[in-house]
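Hi P.,

Sorry for the delay on this. The queue was packed all week, but I finally got your sequence through. Input first:
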Amino acid sequence: MKVMSEVRKGLNSGISMKCEMCNFQEIIWTEDPHNEKMPVNTAAVSGIMKIGGGFANLEEFLSTLDIPPLSSKTYQKEHNTIATAWEKVAEREMYSAAMEEKQLAVQAGEIGPDGFPTLTVVVDGCWAKRSYRNNYSSLSGAAAIVGFRTKKVIYMGVRNRYRMVCSRAAAANEQAGRHCCSKNWHGSSSSMEANIIQEGFMNSVAMYGIKYTKIIGDGDSNVYKTILDSRPYDALQVEKLECKNHLFRNFCLKLKDLVKDSKVGPIILRKCLGKNILRLRKFIFSVIASIAKNKNLNNYSILQKQILNAPYHIFGDHTKCLDCLCDDDKKEKNWIPDLLESGLMYKVMHVVSNLADNSKSLLFSANNNCVEQFNSIVAKFIGGKRINFCLRGSYLARCSGAVISHNARSFMSSVHKNMYNTSPGNFVKSIERKRENDILRRKKKTSRRRCRKSLLLDKKSNKNYGVSAQKPDLSESTFSQKKRMASFYSSSIR
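Then the structure:
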């Protein structure tokens, strides 16, 4: 047999062999065409998508290994195949999670008067581009509804404002060619989250036969107002609970803003406030824990009063403190008269009253960590929001992959069984078992709670970085120039 040539189809190579005696010629492929496993080209594209890369990343990786890379056309073909499979698996995983959440609600007796199970859900959105809190111009965005009990995604939607094929055709005043258009949004980027969550609420009965009666969110969008305006369940009104972590984060940030604002009061009082922000937070935490133990119908009003009294307790006035929460044996200075006289106390009480208004959410003690975890997985699938995957519909596929990764621990097994009705290879199973064992081991460690050592640096100035970083000495000419300028300014002032 004589090797004649090589035929390449992406990473699958065919060696053309010819018999020198009978001139019989046949191509021997490096991959069995009758194999029921995932083809090597599909697996390569799936792997690079799973780690948040794209065509350029795969091309550079294969070139570094001195392996002929896939063509752009082959990559896009395999990408579309994987995208379709991921979307189907994500829908199946969300349906399974919704049924599990539904069963737990029935077991807990949470059934409405119309016979539909009522669920508490956690909602949040994310975007394909970092906004840095002032630039909300992302081309795509996603939002998810996560079950409070299972912590799994039961609904996910994506909005796309841009499609490259449509945009280029419109710029050239031409008709766009035949393509699967992913553009489904014409509004602003900031309104994507509310629209997706509203859609999930409107379709909950038709999709899963359930109703979302309590919603936990971070309070940084108009999601709740949009839900109330749409009235998804007629007479049944959805109740909103704020995330505890976001409430305290905003509370501390607003107090720190007061400390930095020179217009609100003297520097001595602002320094006193700055030193006691953490004490104020800890005291409110202890108040919540103490009141939550007593099953009283008036717990909300009691907690609200004690939160409003917290600044008085911290700054030395214990006249309205409860005996079980206050130990006024410490001889502390009473800063309240000075704070009231300067007007700073009124600013502080305005911030504290905003926290006290959410006493019901504080007693419920819920957070949206589960949906934030999903958002972090989405960020991983889209390359940390540093690569634009919004041009040709890849963002939806990657968000679907994030749903599978969040709900099902065996990502590749779920996808492989859906696409080929067979289990994946041994190496895939091995790494999935290894990661499953790692998760179980971490859970055992976290079950034994210990005080975690602070990883934060001290608050002293850092000589290695920032405004206090050490700098080299000035040159003699620069030093002389600055010295002359200083003497000039001092003489002009005199």
